[in-house]
Specification:
The protein is α+β, with helices and mostly antiparallel strands. It folds into two domains: 65 residues, 2,3-Dihydroxybiphenyl 1,2-Dioxygenase, domain 1, CATH 3.10.180; 70 residues, Signal recognition particle alu RNA binding heterodimer, srp9/1 (2-Layer Sandwich), CATH 3.30.720. It is 23% helix and 38% strand. The strands form two sheets. Strands 5, 6, 7, 8 and 9 form a five-stranded mixed sheet that branches. A four-stranded mixed sheet has the order 1-4-3-2, covered by helices on one side. A hairpin with a 7-residue loop joins strand 3 and strand 4.
Length: 151
């Protein structure tokens, strides 16, 4: 079996997590349904954002003197089964943006490449990377032979 991603650590400047911990946890819980846990690590209390109760996929947020800086469109892709799910998350993101101008959104036209269409938008809030929220659609017979499933 090939290796799989299970986590990513994102570092914020000293004070950046403590100043925004509750807001980060609330935003990503509301938008993506992620649970948050305060976890002791390396002499501090990090914020673990997990996608499932088994913590099989998560983002760990910590504070570091030398922290990540991503002024471009560095991102982590999150895939959904339907374009309707993506559209609902875009609308929810816009609702957040109306309340908090720190929520950034980048909308895209569908990217069509032969029998494959990517329907996506980017969202960023209080973390140093964007999240690419997307759905992959395939014409009949154009899809991958294998696909990932979560049981």
């Amino acid at each position: 079996m090939p290796g799989r991603f299970n986590h990513m650590e994102l570092t914020l400047p000293i004070g950046g997590l403590e100043a925004n911990r509750k807001e980060i946890a609330h935003f990503y819980a509301d938008l993506f349904g992620w649970d948050s846990l305060d976890v002791p690590i390396l002499g501090q209390i990090g914020l673990l954002l997990r996608t499932d109760p088994d913590t099989s996929q998560f983002i760990l947020v910590t504070e570091q003197r030398v922290h990540v800086s991503s002024p471009g469109y560095d991102h982590l892709g999150i895939i959904y089964d339907t374009r309707e799910e993506v559209d609902a998350l875009l609308e929810k993101s816009k609702g957040w943006q109306a309340m908090d101008d720190r929520v950034q959104i980048k909308e895209y036209e569908d990217l069509v490449n032969g029998g494959h269409t990517t329907h996506a938008f980017y969202v960023k809030h209080l973390l140093p990377i964007w999240f690419d929220v997307q759905n992959q659609e395939y014409a009949e017979g154009a899809g991958p032979e294998r696909s990932w499933t979560f049981d």
